[in-house]
Amino acid sequence: MNLTLHVWRQKNARAAGTFVTYRAADISPDMSFLEMLDVVNEGLVAQGEDPIAFDHDCREGICGACGMMVNGEPHGPRRRTTTCQLHMRSFRDGQELWLEPWRAKAFPVIRDLIVDRSAFDRIIAAGGFISAPIGSAPDGNAIPVRKENADLAMDAAACIGCGACVAACPNASASLFVAAKITHLGMLPQGQPERHERALKMIAQMDAERFGSCTNHEECEAACPKGIPAAFIGRMNADYVTASFTKGRRVAQLGDSAGG
Amino acid sequence: MNLDARVPAGPLAEKWERARFEYQLVNPANKRKYSVIMVGSGLAGAGGAAALAELGYEVACFCYQDSPRRAHSIAAQGGINAAKNYRNDGDSIWRLFYDTVKGGDFRAREANVHRLAEISVEIIDQCVALGVPFAREYGGLLDNRSFGGAQVSRTFYARGQTGQQLLLGAYQALERQIGAGTVRMFARHEMLELIVIDGRARGIVVRDMVTGEIETHFADAVCLATGGYGNVFYLATYAKGCNTTAIWRAYKQGAGFGNPCYTQIHPTCIPVTGEHQSKLTLMSESLRNDGRVWVPKLPGDQRSANQIPEAERDYFLERMYPSYGNLAPRDIASRAAKRVCDEGRGVGPSGYGVFLDFTEAIGRLGEDAVREKYGNLFEMYERITDEDPYKVPMRIYPASHYTMGGLWVDYDLMSSIPGLFVLGEANFSDHGANRLGASALMQGLADGYFVIPYTVGNYLAGVKPGAPAADHPGVRAAVAAVEERLRRLLSVKGKRTPTSFHRELGKIMWEYCGMARNRAGLEAALRKVPALREEFWQNLTVTGENGELNQQLELAGRVADFLELGELICRDALAREESCGGHFREEYQSEDGEAKRDDQRFCHAAVWEYQGEGRTPLRNIEPLTFENVHLATRSYK
């Protein structure tokens, strides 16, 4: 296969960026998308040119490091697939591809297709955890968890923190990312004591990082490589509303209401 | 080199308790005066950093990724072992200990392994408390599955994403401390040198990977949790960024390197498709619970799997190892797969592949049940190969997956450099010559959550807190060495890319020091690797400069270290004239092709000591004594 790539090149956060056109020649349909970029980069390096910088690490769709816009779609055309798991057989010979970094105020470009997603870490640091110091845990089977709840928690916990949801959202909202964590921890009995505070703190941090608000476009769900449903945003909002009303007062929360 | 393991006295099962009592404590009010550096943010690193910060130490944590959540622990699929005996099937701490020592082919230190088995039960409790959504049964209790090398069901899991969930638990514990200001996090920072002053580890030199700035960071103790070095084979199941640089720098500063030749080749990975291949993807060992491994009986059989009748299939693991069958340990399953492929019975376009077939399981359990257990793995397989494993058998082949070798550590996980601790895959301690499935996650979290907090405290109690002077000659020398290496990498200005050297090194290592090794091959590799290294320093090209985000420069530095480590691996493999676990020397095998140990000559850990540039490193030994498990021929038949 031969393709034409229009790639966003930007030397650093302060420099202006522009699209530069490259040829990707003799590409095998069995290559992953990133392997195709490897081939282009090896060619550039051989000519003494700076290769295209992009984040990647595990290349098996789980670390969340990779991600770019391919023809306007986060992670490219294939549903529920990270860029590293996208293969060239999803494209046709002669196709033109436009590659851009995630576009969001909260994700400033570092270089080329690499953006700074540390805002996500700060949102987790604000409240996306259960405070269980090492050594303090009771037996793992001491508190049974309904299988349905554990499964739903796992569905939410599958988020890889890649940022595609933000890139897909017309408001650049991080709602799906935050909602996934709130749902994960909120479905488990261990997550109940901090449930309301967690919603308030994570959402306050999301706002402080200049992510937009959710206006129910649900582009995030379509773009999410792990298929995290936008319905989780409803759970986040419910926790947030409840927390706002009970602010400053601790409300008894029965274990059984987990996920209610 | 002092290789005193400092194993506590007393009966095996009481050693850890005794050690914890004998360790000196740091007064709670004094803990904040002590600082600890943690390099790496995987299970061991994130877990250890969080645990130390919870105790009150001042912690700085470093990782090369853009976020600590991306460390490669995240990719572990199958599960984590714990001797909970929730199944009532005869498991116990002693059995997990025994299975691990035997699985490691009697080349691990008994006391460390027993401690690991003891701690395993606490890990599950801790992870549940942190919100890890382990698989559960309808009664609400934790579910288990079986893994290789064990006849009990002791593996806890979260679908096919156990590593992800355990890491997110540790990451969230770490982020809680970062939010509280007790851990300073340095993402996109790569450690390039260890600072040793007056014989003690006192800090690190790092490169800010965004600006290229070289920084020094000081602490009262330094912990390395930087993972394994299996990317020396280029094609591996590791993340692309995994590297040996941190432990290699420490080795060159005087830390002993234990058993570098103990590398694990995992039997079930998706086969290579072509030269462009940049990495290999694992298919979890848990699949062998229900998948049956086979090849055609006839060499060169080109029919598709579905056309080959039952009578013409060779379920070779079930045939060769009837009592463990498809759940034979990794090293054994990998060698068996290699053997049938070498006989010309391999499947797929390259002939290097065997089938992993779920037809029987789908018939027995139904497609939905199989989907529930392995759905995400099947999906991953389908993404990569464009084949539907519900309809046609998977094709798999062994690939580099883990390294049992690593920096030598004593019982306290301290290397031969005082104040330098090594955790998780980066150390050599618990898995001997072969690691059993679902044991890496166990070790990472054991070291991070439950061992380091005690042993680092004991060390700190004996030293005065405070940083060395920034202009100390030892600090200046470390910084100068880093700057000089970067300058050299950028100034070769030759023709070949770092990746092309890495790929060539990988081919040499796979060919001569992979699943089967022999004297002639290793001697050839010991000529080829140094020759390639020489070419590297004469013909490398690195674009760009240091003062910017420069992925080629990062890569070149890592490849330079792999080119040195590769030689040490081959040297170690040549010196170990026996077969054990993942180290299979063709000269030392039984008539039916099984590994033959030589306990008379090699019942020890080989610990290599750096002697300076261009000089042959020294091979020291730590003798291994087995007081509780009898040395026996490992049999899974």
Largest sheet of chain A: 5 strands, mixed
Helix content of chain A: 25-40%
Distance between the termini of chain A: 52 Å
* Rg over C-alpha atoms of chain B, rounded to the nearest angstrom: 24 Å
Helix/strand order of chain A, N-terminal first: EEHEEEEEHHHHHHH
| Number of beta strands of chain B | 19
- Would you report the number of β strands of chain A? 7
CATH superfamily of the largest domain in chain A: Alpha-helical ferredoxin
Mean pLDDT of chain B: 96
- Strand numbers in spatial order across the main sheet of chain B: 5-2-1-9-17
Assign the structural class of chain B, choosing from mainly alpha, mainly beta, alpha/beta, alpha+beta, or little secondary structure.
Answer: alpha+beta
Low-confidence runs of chain B: none
Report, as a whole number of angstroms, the end-to-end distance of chain B: 40 Å
The mean pLDDT of chain A is 95
What does this entry look like structurally?
The complex is a heterodimer of chains A (260) and B (637). By secondary structure, chain A is an alpha+beta fold. Chain A is built from eight helices and seven strands; from the N terminus they run E-E-H-E-E-E-E-E-H-H-H-H-H-H-H. Chain A folds into two domains: 3-111, Beta-grasp domain (Ubiquitin-like (UB roll)); 117-257, Alpha-helical ferredoxin (Fumarate Reductase Iron-sulfur Protein, Chain B, domain 2, Orthogonal Bundle), CATH 1.10.1060. Chain A has helices at 33-46, 118-127, 147-157, 164-168, 175-186, 195-208, 219-223, 231-245; strands at 3-9, 18-24, 69-70, 73-74, 96-100, 109-111, 114-115. In chain A, the strands form two sheets. Chain A has a five-stranded mixed sheet. A two-stranded antiparallel sheet of chain A has the order 6-7. Chain B is of the alpha+beta class and 637 residues long. Among the domains of chain B are: 265-401, Flavocytochrome C3, Chain A, domain 1; 473-615, Up-down Bundle (Methane Monooxygenase Hydroxylase, Chain G, domain 1). Chain B is 37% helix and 14% strand. In chain B, the strands form five sheets. Chain B has a five-stranded parallel sheet. In chain B, strand 7 (200-208) and strand 8 form a beta hairpin. The longest helix of chain B has 25 residues, at 551-575. The radius of gyration of chain B is 24 Å and the shape is globular. Chain B starts with 14 loop residues before the first helix and ends in a 14-residue tail after the last strand. At the A-B interface, helix 1, helix 2 and helix 3 of A face helix 3, helix 5, helix 6, helix 11 and helix 12 of B.
